[in-house]
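Please, structure for the following, as tokens.
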Amino acid sequence: MPDEILQNWQKKSADHQKTYKRFLQKANKNEVLKELPQLHEEAFHKIDCLQCANCCKNYSPRFKTPDIKRIAKHLDMKEGEFIETYLQLDDEGDYVVRSLPCPFLGEDNFCSIYENRPSDCKRFPYTDEDVILKRQPLTLKNSTFCPIVYFVLENLIDKLKGK
């Protein structure tokens, strides 16, 4: 991550939470959505998720019914056995992994079920979707552990200030 914007990104993100919150609350949805695809691509070009894997180490995706069916089949397990072995219900009634880091994360930061991973994992970090505005508390939380979310927010604010 040679880009200057990414140096000390976790501290900067923590320091900028109020700024992000204000920006997300006041942002013009159409202007944000217009900028997201390019910033998303740029972020993924600069940041290698395999060097980080903070999402897999510290948080769990939601496992929806289609995810459970697909992954259980891939692992040659019954759905109930898969749930019993790997998942638990969280406070919101969603299935999440029982333990962290994710049991499917390898030492090399590769995912052992990558081709069959939950849809939340495929979509993460939502920096090319309106989720960035629709679920602002999630965006703020994600910016504290995902350098891509941090990068996108910093650049969004920079590009759209004064508009």
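The mean pLDDT is 94. The beta strands are 87-89, 95-97.
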